[in-house]
């Protein structure tokens, strides 16, 4: 699965950019502490040190604020790991997702973002865009594996990357199973084995 953004970076800009930065960081704090159901624009304004009318005028609703936060996070990234083997790359990806989802701040934040996306179409679209970017960032490791002959021609790189983190998100959101490095490594190993066996070879269509 895609690498997760590291929230909290400050970018240069004028007053409008500074206000947006402060509000988005305050929204992160509120989501982490209270979840999506506890997100209140007036509370976010207080945390950010800006007027309520500014927040309501610009973002309108809690869902609109979350959608903008996801857009901001989608722009942030770190270099992906290259180990020289598909399994090594997929393990690096899986462990990054695992660390993100078990982090004291980012774990609750991502849980809240996913919850928000289930009830608002705009937020869902922003979440899809966020993860699409992360998948695209890691897809080259699969294409390199094709070039090395590790997996068959026609392997859908995007599906391979998605398959790595799917069981980790399942443990986080559904089963409540242990979400440790062993789980991350197992997800990577299972995905690599399936890819080598041709499970992700597409039928001539472009990856979704």
The CATH superfamily of the largest domain appears as Tetracycline Repressor, domain 2
Task: Report the sheet with the most strands, covering strand number, pairing sense and barrel closure.
Answer: none
Number of domains: 2
CA distance, first residue to last residue? 14 Å
Q: Helix count, per DSSP?
A: 10
Radius of gyration: 19 Å
Q: What is the succession of H and E elements?
A: HHHHHHHHHH
Give the overall shape: elongated
Strand content: under 5%
Give the CATH architecture of the largest domain.
Orthogonal Bundle
CATH uppermost class of the largest domain: Mainly Alpha
Structure description:
The chain has 208 residues and is mostly helical. The chain has two domains: 15-74, Orthogonal Bundle (Arc Repressor Mutant, subunit A); 86-196, Orthogonal Bundle (Tetracycline Repressor, domain 2), CATH 1.10.357. Helix content is 67%, strand content 0%. It is built from ten helices and no strands. The protein has helices at 15-34, 41-48, 52-59, 62-74, 86-102, 106-117, 121-138, 140-148, 157-175, 181-196. α1 crosses α2 (41-48), α1 (15-34) packs across α4 and α8 crosses α9. The radius of gyration is 19 Å and the shape is elongated. 39% of the residues are buried. The model is unreliable at 1-12 (pLDDT under 50). Residues 40-59 bind DNA. Keywords: DNA-binding, Transcription, Transcription regulation. This is TetR family transcriptional regulator. InterPro entries: Homeodomain-like_sf, HTH-type_TetR-like_transc_reg, HTH_TetR, Tet_transcr_reg_TetR-rel_C_sf, TetR_C. It holds the Pfam family TetR_C_11.
